[in-house]
């Protein structure tokens, strides 16, 4: 019975909801039988909502629930009304023990990913759930949890720290990264539930890929030209594989060819050397099987086609008075340019453009409202970062420790609730938590 205590809490809300409806119905019948001067006919759900919103009894309290689930640490705040505070719901062990395995796995697969770490402490069977192939199969078929922000930093070379902010749940979770080797590595990016890092193991440049939820990682084979490179990782869920692209960075006086790692072959392949250009930023954006970089000479973009392994120049001129620009990939073929406009701090503004592939030009689609701009960047030379995923664009300011989110489709600006960057050396990216993302 003790093992089912957490399951009782998990499923108890259904029975509580049913009991609440019965109480409301009984109350309604008594009102109809009484000789009150006024009778109001309402649905069974309306009084419940009213009682929840107007309950001002001193017994109404705010409970801080602090839990330390296996692998994650969490602190959430929940408010409960008097009528929903109840003891553990008694359940028949003999009945729930007969729950079909497939049905149980499907139920658990639909829980938020971070909840899985909590329920693993219920019993030995659930503790091994992440090793159950049937559970991972059900999990791969359910819809995504939604976008999260992954923040990575180091208090010391041996103590990497990581926190994940769930946008749907509006909660921070601490994810242990002590399973990674003690290199001097930095965050490359995330895709499809995997996170990529690169760094120096002594004097050797290495690349590793990990799944933070599964606490699994692997080192990729060495590149043909094993120097420090700018990398980007892309995951193909349909093929259950991933690729890492090393661009043609200049190392000394030698131009390096583009290299692509394919997890299906576990090898790096050599491709065309990028034509001689003057890059204005090392930031890259990947969308629709194409990789984009900004160039000053020739002015425009360099595009790498993953299917052909060839580079092309796109003569898309940047907007006038652009101070700093970030390329951000949207859904499908959408490519955005985000940057500040204006030479003086009082005239600066943050704007967003979208590339018109037909006219090969940037079209302004939005401007950051002044109140958000002044709160995010108080100084004209203040540093900020910008990155995106699925038509969501995130702005972070290291000095202010704030995060701002823009939904391109809904045209809504909003502060990220509870966002407080851990360190000025923090590295941030969008992250999709998935148990079924394999590092092999």
Overview of the structural elements:
The structure is a single chain. With 440 residues, the chain is an alpha+beta fold. The protein has helices at residues 5-33, 45-54, 93-96, 101-109, 116-119, 124-127, 133-141, 370-376; strands spanning 61-67, 73-80, 148-156, 159-166, 171-174, 184-191, 194-201, 204-211, 216-219, 231-236, 241-246, 250-251, 254-255, 257-262, 267-273, 278-287, 290-297, 300-305, 310-314, 322-329, 335-341, 349-356, 361-367, 384-389, 392-397, 402-407, 412-415, 427-431. It has a six-stranded antiparallel β-sheet with strand order 1-2-5-4-3-28, with no helix packed on it. A four-stranded antiparallel β-sheet has the order 6-7-8-9, with no helix packed on it. Strands 10-11-14-15 form a four-stranded antiparallel β-sheet, with no helix packed on it. Helix 4 (101-109) packs across helix 7. The chain starts with a helix and ends in a 9-residue tail after the last strand. Residues 1-85 have low confidence and may be disordered.
């Amino acid at each position: 019975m003790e093992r089912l205590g957490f399951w009782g809490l998990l499923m108890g809300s259904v029975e509580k909801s049913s009991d609440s409806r019965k109480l409301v119905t009984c109350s309604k019948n008594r009102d109809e039988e009484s000789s009150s001067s006024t009778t109001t006919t309402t649905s069974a759900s309306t009084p419940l909502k009213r009682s929840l919103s107007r309950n001002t009894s001193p017994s109404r309290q705010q409970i801080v629930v602090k839990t330390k689930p296996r692998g994650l640490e969490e602190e959430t705040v929940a408010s409960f009304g008097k009528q929903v505070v109840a003891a553990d719901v008694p359940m028949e062990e003999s009945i729930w023990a007969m729950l079909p395995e497939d049905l149980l796995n499907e139920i658990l697969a639909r829980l938020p990913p971070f909840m899985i770490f909590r329920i693993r402490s219920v019993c030995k069977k659930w503790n091994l759930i992440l090793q159950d192939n049937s559970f991972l199969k059900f999990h791969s078929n359910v819809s995504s949890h939604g976008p999260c922000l992954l923040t990575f930093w180091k208090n010391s070379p041996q103590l990497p720290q990581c926190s994940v902010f769930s946008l749907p749940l509006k909660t921070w979770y601490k994810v242990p990264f002590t399973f990674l080797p003690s290199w001097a590595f930095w965050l490359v990016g995330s895709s499809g539930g995997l996170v990529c890092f690169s760094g120096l193991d002594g004097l050797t440049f290495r690349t590793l890929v990990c799944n933070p939820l599964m606490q699994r990682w692997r080192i990729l084979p060495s590149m043909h030209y094993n120097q420090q490179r700018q990398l980007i990782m892309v995951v193909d869920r349909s093929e259950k594989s991933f690729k890492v692209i090393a661009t043609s960075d200049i190392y000394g006086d030698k131009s390096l060819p583009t290299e692509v790692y394919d997890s299906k072959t576990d090898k790096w392949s050599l491709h065309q050397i990028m034509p001689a250009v003057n890059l204005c930023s090392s930031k890259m954006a990947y969308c629709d099987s194409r990789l984009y970089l900004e160039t000053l000479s020739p002015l425009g973009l360099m595009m790498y086609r993953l299917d052909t392994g060839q580079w092309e120049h796109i003569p898309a001129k940047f907007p006038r008075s652009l101070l700093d620009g970030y390329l951000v990939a949207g859904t499908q073929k959408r490519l955005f340019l985000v940057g500040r406009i204006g030479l003086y701090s009082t005239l600066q503004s943050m704007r967003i453009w979208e590339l018109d592939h037909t006219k090969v030009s940037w079209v302004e689609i939005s401007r950051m409202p002044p109140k958000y701009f002044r709160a995010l960047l108080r100084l004209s030379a203040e540093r900020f970062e910008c990155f995106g995923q699925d038509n969501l664009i995130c702005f972070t300011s290291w000095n202010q420790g704030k995060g701002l989110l823009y939904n391109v489709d809904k045209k809504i600006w909003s502060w990220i609730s509870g966002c407080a960057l851990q360190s000025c050396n923090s590295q941030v990216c969008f992250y999709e938590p998935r148990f079924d993302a394999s590092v092999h």
